[in-house]
Design goal:
Length: 157
């Protein structure tokens, strides 16, 4: 979805979205059942949550970011094209507002995405909104509560 503006090399260099503080536990990506059918995933690093799976990242704290267990520091994500949906769309995030409205929001933490204008990012969200909102309807657990670290790009309902 974002391959027009985010290159794998840029992400491999940065890796910010693949490292978490304990306070960012809510932002750790969820895996659908079909995404869990990968040989690379084992029961030591994931746990079941409702209809979705979530990575258990050992050693999470608020002193230092802890890497995702699928992150290889030299090559990037070992899941390659098999990343969970939330990783594929990041720095976009599907969220819900206080008024139960579904939103496409954008993380302000991605240094590459911040080089693009808001109109260009809105156009990308608009282009992909059907897929994003289809996933949100199919997996409502994927909707995160709106967080002020994100900027609303598009809403629907």
């Amino acid at each position: 979805m974002l391959s027009k503006i985010l290159k794998a090399e840029d992400c491999k260099r940065c890796k910010k979205c693949c490292n978490f503080f304990l306070s960012e536990d809510w932002d750790i990506p969820l895996f659908t059942e079909s995404e869990m059918n990968l040989n690379i995933i084992n029961s030591n690093i994931v746990f079941y949550r409702s209809k979705l799976w979530k990575i258990r990242i050992l050693g999470l704290n608020n002193e230092k970011r802890t890497p995702c267990p699928f992150l290889d520091e030299s090559t990037g994500c070992i899941l390659k094209d098999n990343k969970p949906f939330e990783c594929k769309i990041w720095p976009f995030q599907i969220m819900k507002s206080n008024k139960s409205k579904s939103l496409i929001a954008l993380s302000k933490e991605c240094p590459i995405i911040n080089m693009y204008g808001k109109d260009e990012l809105i156009a990308i969200a608009q282009e992909n909104k059907d897929v994003l909102f289809k996933v949100a309807r199919e997996y409502p657990e994927i909707l995160k509560n709106f967080n002020n670290d994100y900027e609303v790009i598009l809403d629907f309902n």
